[in-house]
Amino acid sequence: MNMRTLPLSREKIRAEVQALGPWFHNLDLAGVKTAPDHFLGDYPAVKWRRFEQSLPADLTGKSVLDIGCNAGFYSIEMKRRGAARVLGIDSDPDYLAQARFAAEVCEANIELRQMSVYQVGEIGETFDVVLFMGVLYHLRHPLLALDLIHAHVARDLLVFQSMQRGSADVMETAENYDFWQTDPFDRPDYPRLHFVEKRYAGDPTNWWIPNRAAAEAMLRSAGFTIVDHPEDEVYLCRRAGAPSPDPLPNTVPEAL
């Protein structure tokens, strides 16, 4: 006879949370908060509440890929909306260990794999919903990542979020500029990426931080149509036609 596993006690959950820490996602695991002193508050729930109404409430039968899943907050939310399959990927094994434990406590059937966004072509399938939240600015090659998502895993909806710095205004750029016309580049609302050579917020993995114009331009350049902007940093996009000419090389360097 199969014996049902008894729920973990709050004491055991608290002990495991401490052992797996520190946590970036503040999850509520049966009453135990994983990052109660988060510098952003109740993160990412506080951000999720600002755009959750823009996503389908019923994901029954849908597949979801969560790129850079961290401790699994968004993956778990997708399962709560009835997604048939949720795959979370992250390059950090510590985050994946947290996600496995969180999914166990929440009784969420989530598949987890250790891989980077540059490896999404190895998954070999497309997904109805792709989450790409809080990853872009951690990448040395951000536009390549968006190109790979478009080419290999995005079937329909892309949910994108990136930290932004600089102007929140967006200029309407011309189709082309003369070589000697340099003044658009001096405007704060021109699409621009701010390069972090050393550290930002004490994090050595913060590389390229876009302003709003750059975030939107990069999404369009990678072949996505922005259909909603429900939160300052969040965009809902539909996969459109592939960029032309094809921006991807035949192979991605193994160093990535």
How would you describe this protein?
With 256 residues, the chain is of the alpha/beta class. The protein has a domain at 58-170 and 179-239: Vaccinia Virus protein VP39 (Rossmann fold, 3-Layer(aba) Sandwich), CATH 3.40.50.150. The chain is 24% helix and 21% strand. The chain has six helices and eleven strands. It has helices spanning 10-20, 45-51, 73-80, 93-106, 142-152, 212-221, and strands spanning 28-29, 32-33, 63-67, 85-90, 111-114, 127-133, 154-161, 193-195, 208-210, 224-231, 234-239. The strands form three sheets. The protein has a seven-stranded mixed β-sheet with strand order 5-4-3-6-7-11-10, sandwiched between helices. Strands 1-2 form a two-stranded antiparallel ribbon. The protein has a two-stranded antiparallel sheet with strand order 8-9. α1 runs antiparallel to α4. It is globular and about 70 Å long. The N and C termini lie far apart (48 Å). The model has no long low-confidence stretch (mean pLDDT 93).
The CATH superfamily of the domain at 58-170 and 179-239 bears the name Vaccinia Virus protein VP39
What is the end-to-end distance?
A: 48 Å
Low-pLDDT ranges: none
The helix-and-strand class reads: alpha/beta
Counted beta strands: 11
The average pLDDT score comes to 93
What is the ordering of alpha helices and beta strands? HEEHEHEHEEHEEEHEE
Q: How much beta, percentage-wise?
A: 15-25%
The radius of gyration is: 19 Å
**What is the general shape?**
globular
The biggest sheet, with number of strands, parallel, antiparallel or mixed sense and barrel status, is: 7 strands, mixed
